Amino acid sequence: MYKLIPLYACLLMISGCSSSTIDTVKEARLHYDESFTIEQAFENRKICKETNWTEFPDERGRMIVQYECKLQDDGYFKSNRSNKHAGQKRMHEYSIKSSKSSIKTLNKKLTDFSKAIKGFKLLSQEDMDIMTNMKSPKEDRQKITIQYYKISNEYGLGFCESVHPVVPFSIQGCINELEEKFKETNGEIFGEEEKIEGSKEILESKLKVADKEIISSMSELIQFAVNEENDDVQVIYTGIEMEYFNNSKKERSTQQKFVFKAIYENKITSVRAYPTARGR
């Protein structure tokens, strides 16, 4: 596309764009429908909420006239943005809900580990050695085994992975194991709490990224070149300029036959039906 020279273009707009070149274009007729002048066909369209005419030189010295139609959107772009933001917010809320659920589960584990540690501290290593030594008197082993299972059922001693009533083990070793698990679980809770704490910033960051891809407005652009010797007018470019919610802009060309069909029929009233894509 031909580039605007901003200062010159602004001077033309200040003067009301009444240059002879612009007037020549407006008074010309296109072969698509010669019953209209370009001005008659291009102005007062249902799809345009505003039109502008500017003039600027291209890189080879030709004067180019550009017609711009800011397209009606009927709230379509804002609605589209709201829907996409709502999707991001739902994902954000799901993430927070998931973290809170994890914290609840992890706190339950902390409670269980604490109970198990307390239970092991009620046992004596001497009793456990007797219980796991098959050479110990049977009555003594049975008595201690009953005591062990009672404490095990009440305090959940099974959280110690090495505990087993018939295999020698260290009570202090189990206490150390559970205390390490308690510490690790606390770290997991802290991590989930950090996720929740930073979730607002993460959401804002995702919304900004989304805004780079969500269109806020669209303008139809058509450029004409004028032969200064005989005032012949030629269409040299048709395109769409898309502005996004982060204020960036992109532009792409469109197929002339679809653009002129939309212009001369003047039936389209909203951007939803506008033939913006190539091949439409």
Task: Note down, in words, how this protein is organized.
The chain is an alpha+beta fold and 280 residues long. It folds into two domains: 6-72 and 215-260, no CATH class; 77-211. Helices cover 52% and strands 17% of the residues. Helix 4 (76-122) packs antiparallel against helix 6 (138-155). The longest helix is centred in the middle third of the chain and has 47 residues, at 76-122. It is rod-shaped.
Short structural summary:
The chain is built from eight helices and five strands; from the N terminus they run αααββααααβββα. With 280 residues, it is of the alpha+beta class.
How does the major sheet shape up? 5 strands, antiparallel
Helix content percent band: 40-55%
Report the sheet-strand fraction.
15-25%
Number of helices: 8
Uncertain segments: 1-18
What is the average of the pLDDT values? 84
Tell me the count of domains: 2
Q: What is the N-to-C order of secondary-structure elements (H for helix, E for strand)?
A: HHHEEHHHHEEEH
What is the end-to-end distance? 20 Å
Give me the side-by-side strand order of the main sheet: 1-2-3-4-5
Q: What's the overall geometry?
A: rod-shaped
User: What is the number of beta strands?
Assistant: 5
Structural class: alpha+beta
Q: Measured on Cα atoms, how large is the radius of gyration?
A: 38 Å
